[in-house]
Write a structure and sequence with these properties.
Alpha-Beta Plaits; alpha+beta; 99 residues; 25% strand; 4 strands
């Protein structure tokens, strides 16, 4: 069963640091959605991945000073509004939609 996480970093991170986080997520083979500046929705099938291990990896990539928060979630529902296509990944990977 897939684990789902929300990872967030503080506003003080640079574009380069955000890009490093995205590159890290890709290198680990995590599914992700990243349409909001400093927020990543993630999926993983690895039992070894935890909120703490993700936090520590992201903290290392952002220099250790910025705020980093990672939540493991089991969403029952979600709702969103935005441009067409931006929610396709969530529809596929986070299922149940509230209109």
């Amino acid at each position: 069963m897939a684990k789902r996480f929300i990872a967030m970093v503080g506003e003080e991170v640079t574009k380069e640091q955000r890009d490093q986080v995205t590159a890290f997520v890709k290198s680990k083979g995590l599914g992700f959605w990243h349409w909001v500046g400093n927020v990543w929705l993630l999926t993983s099938s690895s039992d070894d991945l935890t909120a703490s291990t993700l936090r520590d990896s992201i903290r290392d990539l952002t220099g250790g000073d910025p705020m980093v928060m990672v939540l493991e979630v089991e969403p029952k529902t979600w709702a969103g509004f935005g441009l067409t296509g931006r929610f396709e990944w969530i529809k596929k990977n986070w299922k149940k939609i509230v209109s």
